[in-house]
Amino acid sequence: MEPTELLEIVGRGEDSHHQFKENVASPASLAAELVAFANSGGGQIFVGVADDGSINAHNAASIGRLNQLIANTASSSVRPPINPLTENVAVSGGVVIVVSVSDGLSKPYMDNNGAIWVKSGSDKRKVTSREEMQRMFQSALLVHGDDIPVPRTSVADIDLDYFRWFFKLRFDQELDEQGLSLRQVLSNMRLLIDDTLTVTGVLLFAKDPQAFLPVFHIKAVCYPGNEIHSSTYIDSEDMFGRIQTQFENSLAFLLRNLRKGQMGQGVNSTGKVEIPRIVLEELLANALIHRDYFVSAPIRIFVFDDRVVIISPGHLPNNLTLANIRSGNSNIRNPILTSFATKVIPYRGLGTGIVRAVKAYPEIEFADDRDGNVFKAVIRRNTNNITTPPSPSV
User: Fold this and answer.
1) Domains defined along the chain, listed by start
2) Average pLDDT over residues 255-279
């Protein structure tokens, strides 16, 4: 780094990727800074620059001590260890050390006390929320929301007839032919951990999933016009039950509130739905299977005159982008749930659902709202050659 570049950065002040330190004496304080950058996209620490941007360069003796302190802290006070790069930049009166920390590949990083630090603007903060910690472990593929045990559940909460049907469908064999107890079978399928059902076990096979996971359902409303009304609606329904039931009831809600048109068919035909059924199936399946089950919120469906909006809790995982998903890329957020989903809802495989939906009906927009922690699919409605169904009673 040239001195002019250093002075230019310093002149802009501190931000989420540039931190000023006049001096460093405490390994614990330095470790917290290193951890915060490693957890938050990386950044640079300028040692020899005061908070107000004034330069307080170091001499040769200080440079040796500081470089040794930085190396020792990164290797022994950060877990897992990191490898920051240091650069000595000569300025008037001495040297400023620029410490460059890369975005970590093994998040979450923590200090020797087990504290997880992240950047918050130009400052840093300690992560204390259980939900935020879980998401960080999830992003590192160390834990998955669908694999978390659900307190107060047991084998007794399984709908045995439904599970028998699924087992035969999935494995082409009767459950009783296994010679194993139900508990053993559920454990082998990763649906039971230490005699407690997992989120996947409850959502797929429990008699009453919402008795244990009350917010994991779907709320749907059809409004007149193009905006949300506080008290006026055409149709409204909350979809409870197992994932299969939620999917089927949500699809039925959409089909009855969308218009049908002749679309080239004979006059005696029942008409085709304005948005192809396969599009609705793919986007509903995507919302149920790939939502973030660490977020305590329902999936929401809004039907307006000009669009249908499906809002799924949780933004796209890790480094996945809107361009990625349109190209068929995917990231397995809920691997256990995904592995069993094809037998209970029409889910056709990783990465292909979005591509298939857009191919069948290009008028779809996606929004990855990271601040609001939601993913939105907005389907524009086609009003050409369409008739409006009678409105259900309120």
Assistant:
1) 3-127 (3.30.950.30), 146-204 (no CATH), 218-387 (3.30.565.60)
2) 78
